[in-house]
Amino acid sequence: MEDRGKVDISVVVPLFNEEENIPELYKRLTGVLKGLGRKYEIIFVNDGSTDNTQRVLEDVFRGDSRVRVIELRTNFGKAPALSAGFSNVRGDIVLTIDGDLQDCPEDIPKFIEKMDEGFDIVSAWRMDRKEPFLTRRLPSVIANWCIARLSGVDLHDFGNAYKAYRAEVIKGIKIYGEHHRFIPALAKNFGVTIAEIRVRNEPRRHGQSKYGLSRIPKVFFDMITLKFLLTYSTRPLHVLGPIGSFFGIVGIFLGLRLAYLKIAHGDVLGTKVSLSVCVLCIFLAVQLITLGLLAELLVRIYYESQGKEIYTIRRVLEHKT
Ligand code: UDP
Ligand code: MG
User: Fold this and answer.
1) What is the pLDDT confidence band of residue 3, given thresholds at 50, 70 and 90?
2) pTM of the shown model
3) Domain containing 266: what range?
4) What gap in Å lies between CA 42 and CA 67, rounded to an integer?
5) Ligand 1 centre from 246 Cα, in Å?
6) Pair (199, 247) in one structural domain
7) 244 and 107 share a domain?
8) Residues 208-230: tens digit of each pLDDT
């Protein structure tokens, strides 16, 4: 049977209340995928929709053995929906696309072409975005610039889920919260190669966008996590240690100065403030350094409990014995 075993391409689509978009999406996806002449599957992930999404998906499912539907129990968000899809893919190449038809399925061959050139991730760069400037495009330009600087991954468009990955890359990464936009940045830790292609972008015709301005502060905090994960996740004391030491040195210096003033001049004037600052600094130093040590413990638990390695191997050449 064609739908058993491995396929070449798995397309994962997260859907939250997209009933009106599914029929056209399915039709266009199928048209393009058939044209590629490779084995494929489409995995629709229904992220707890409250409209008719599930029923529409079931209709599509009944008519096509290459379609699979994963129904989540409630609305978990786009990143968990994608994760649910990822744990079920059978393809060598995994392509993610939004279910609202803002991304054109007709661009899929461009992704596959780049993957065939040997890249591990291909990311779309939306040209000519049809969204409001102030609330959508401007924050996105700023966020993209910051993420590119923080991660050293030179992409223009992290926010878009229209991306292709080699299956082993996606399986090695766990995404939490709304970190789907950081997959290429996180994958960089594993030494993957990343290409960018330009794609069209359409306005949303049916349904509503699920995100508004509220995502701006979230992305900001996510960026702090990203920086931490990328740079210090295996050595947290290297971040907290120097900050703690700085306060420690300031505290000790203030303490020595206070002692000198007291002994040499019997001076007690103004010392209340200095004394509080001195105590505060030493307190902070102890707190930060012990926090750093605790974090070091957590890191060990994190890697060892998941059997995660702190490196990835591309290939091993060895002689048979
Ligand atoms: N989505 C989802 N779960 C959510 C929110 C969104 O699966 O909780 C899906 C949604 O159905 C769409 C994609 O994620 O297929 C992108 O969502 P949306 O178009 O609302 O985001 P925008 O394009 O406005 O950034
Ligand atoms: Mg959209």
Assistant:
1) very low
2) 0.84
3) 237-303
4) 5
5) 44
6) no
7) no
8) 888 878 888 988 999 998 888 88
Q: Would you say 66 and 100 are in contact if contact means Cβ atoms under 8 Å apart? A: no
16 touches ligand 1 (CB under 6 Å): yes
Whole-angstrom Cα distance, residue 321 to residue 316?
15
Rounded distance from Cα 68 to ligand 2 centre (Å): 22
Number of folded domains in the chain? 2
Mutate to test the pocket of ligand 1, among 43, 56, 73, 98 (most ligand atoms within 8 A of CB): 98
Ligand 1 contact, 215 CB (< 6 A) = no
How is residue 264 written in tokens? 């040499």
What would the pLDDT profile of 51-92 be if each residue is shown by its tens digit? Answer: 999 999 999 999 999 999 999 999 999 999 999 999 999 999
- One-letter amino acid for residue 73 of the chain: R
Distance of CA 125 to the CA centre of its chain: 16
Ligand in closest contact with the CA of 159:
1
Nearest residue (CA) to ligand 1, atom 24: 209
Please tell me the total number of residues recorded for the chain in this structure: 321
What ligand has the least distance to the C-alpha of 14?
1
Domain check: are 201 and 160 in the same one?
yes
